[in-house]
Design goal:
Rossmann fold; globular; alpha/beta; Dihydrodipicolinate Reductase, domain 2; 11 helices; 330 residues; 35% helix; six-stranded parallel sheet
């Protein structure tokens, strides 16, 4: 049994990860730390486990094998470096860190300690993503020319997002670094890494962080990736468009179905495509890597690229200029 500690319940998905750890046959939550002690004590009492006011004290416990990190984004680097140095395996909410420099510091500590790291990038494991990858591998769309992925909700206008999700110091961003992570890593998965990024932020509700965002990824081939995210839309479906010289794929426009039209098959109309079952979740993959002494190489590489794209987007939005990825500080 892998003994797990929850490090913070700051993130809205912390409860989801706690549930996964409770339900998985190979993991057990045995301790909790939170940067807000009252919140941590409440969660610990609810679960009947130990609460530690000191992160260092928790990490010093030999019986704790692993940690789930749901702290504010600005704490990720320090918390994960400490956890790795203490020999604890790490499962973390995205982003791994807000800058490439901090990501490299985390990875250096993880590599030195030999612990297993996995980042929660959940839509990589969804059936529609698997189906899209299979179609792209068959080259039914020809050379790709544009990918657009959109994810938005009304968390800012309807008031259901917690107030701290609009705290710039803690979050280091808003709609893009939170929701936009999913469209961003999917666009990266389908198109690869671009040469440069241009981003624009909107502040509809006048909060500290952006609640409306678009990031455009520019490729040497002439292809473009368009990443859209927002906290100010009541009925915006999660949608994917992938266009190529020979065909187009559509998902979620607005129904949850995958449609294909391709010259390769001489099609004159859209045809529905089957969507397989989801593959194991990021959490399940993390447990597998711990038990089998393997590494989440693809997951980590995509997490690195996600941070690069987020950092470049933020720099672009602030400067009003395109940002070349090769210019990021390592």
């Amino acid at each position: 049994m892998i003994k797990v500690a929850m490090l913070s319940f700051w993130h809205v998905h912390a409860g989801d990860y706690a549930r996964q750890a409770t339900e998985h046959r190979d993991t057990e939550i045995v301790a909790i730390w939170d940067e807000i002690p009252e919140r941590g004590r409440k969660e610990a009492e609810k679960r009947g486990v130990a609460f530690y006011e000191s992160l260092d004290e928790l990490l010093a416990q030999a019986h704790i094998d692993a940690v789930i990190v749901d702290t504010p984004t600005n704490m990720h680097r320090d918390v994960m470096v400490k956890a790795a140095q203490a020999g604890k395996h790490i499962f973390t909410e995205k982003v791994l860190a807000p800058t490439l420099k901090e990501v490299n510091e985390i990875l250096s500590a993880v590599d030195a300690a030999g612990v297993k790291l996995t980042v929660s990038l959940p839509r990589l494991n969804d059936g529609y993503t698997i189906a899209i990858q299979n179609i792209l591998e068959q080259e039914l769309l020809g050379e790709l020319t544009l990918v657009r992925v959109r994810l938005s909700h009304n968390g800012a206008t309807a008031g259901w997002l917690p107030a701290h999700f609009f705290n710039l110091e803690q979050c280091l961003g808003g709609a893009l670094i939170d929701l936009g992570c999913h469209p961003m890593y999917l666009t990266r998965l389908f198109l690869g890494m671009p040469e440069s990024v241009s981003a624009h932020y909107g502040y509809v509700t006048r909060k500290e962080v952006e609640d409306n965002a678009v990031s455009v990824l520019k490729y040497a081939s002439g292809a473009l990736g368009i990443v859209e995210a927002g906290f100010v839309n009541s009925h915006s479906p999660f949608s994917i468009e992938i266009h190529g010289k020979e065909g187009t794929l559509l998902y979620g426009t607005p129904e949850r179905q995958l449609l294909l039209r391709t010259n390769a098959r001489g099609e004159e109309s859209w045809t529905g495509q089957s969507i397989p079952a989801n593959v194991p979740s990021a959490f399940e993959q993390w447990v597998y890597h711990i038990k089998n002494n393997t590494t989440a190489a693809e997951n980590i590489n995509l997490a690195i690229d996600l941070t690069k794209l987020m950092e470049a987007s933020d720099l672009s939005a602030k400067s009003g200029c395109a940002v070349a990825l090769e210019s990021l500080e390592k």
